[in-house]
Amino acid sequence: MNKKLVDIIIVLGLIIVIGVGLITAKGMRTTASKQIESKSPIEFEVFLRSVTMSSKVCPIKNGDKTFISIRNVPYSDLDVIGVKCQHKKTTIPAKNSNGYIVVDDAGFVDTYDIVVRVKDDAIITKDGAVVGGNKIKIGLPITLEGKTYKFTGSVSDINIVNEN
Q1: Helix, strand, or coil here: 106?
Q2: Which one, of 120, 123, 128, lies nearest residue 76 by Cα?
Q3: What is the pLDDT of residues 51-102, one digit of tens each?
Q4: Global pTM value
Q5: Residue 68 class from Cβ within 10 Å (0-12 exposed, 13-18 middle, 19+ buried)?
Q6: Which of 48, 107, 128, 134 could form a disulfide with 114 if both were Cys (CB 3.0 to 4.6 A apart)?
Q7: Residue 151, Cβ neighbours under 10 Å: how many?
Q8: Do residues 158 and 136 touch, judged by C-beta distance below 8 A?
Q9: Which secondary structure element, helix H or strand E, spans residue 3, and what is its range?
Q10: Which CATH class is domain 36-160?
Q11: If 0-12 CB within 10 Å is exposed, 13-18 middle and 19+ buried, where does residue 80 land?
């Protein structure tokens, strides 16, 4: 009795495997390779909030290369195509109006907010851009590393560049 039950399970397993194979071959099931729509250059911004550094010069420069890690997994060197580095800001009420003005926060003298724009080639799928096996989406944690710095931030903007 036991041997018949094992034989039935094996036969049913083979039928299921053959069925899945036929469905995939007929195009009714999408495999990973068919989800790729195209390859395209991508630019994305990484927002580095409240970076503390005593130097008045931003260590990340436009035109440099920066090594990135996505979700703590090393990926590659990417080209830096833009950097915005500003002192931490705060808002205070304006004296002569109902509005507010933005000023440097005196309580955080050596604290900066930095936005770094990098570019890379990505695989474009129906779910978005994929870089280094990771979907690049706003909020994704990324570490930027250079000769003199290692900063952790998150993706704040994505732009898929269409080269036509």
Answers
A1: coil
A2: 120
A3: 888 888 889 999 999 999 988 888 888 999 999 998 888 888 888 777 888 8
A4: 0.70
A5: buried
A6: 48
A7: 19
A8: yes
A9: helix 2-25
A10: mainly beta
A11: buried
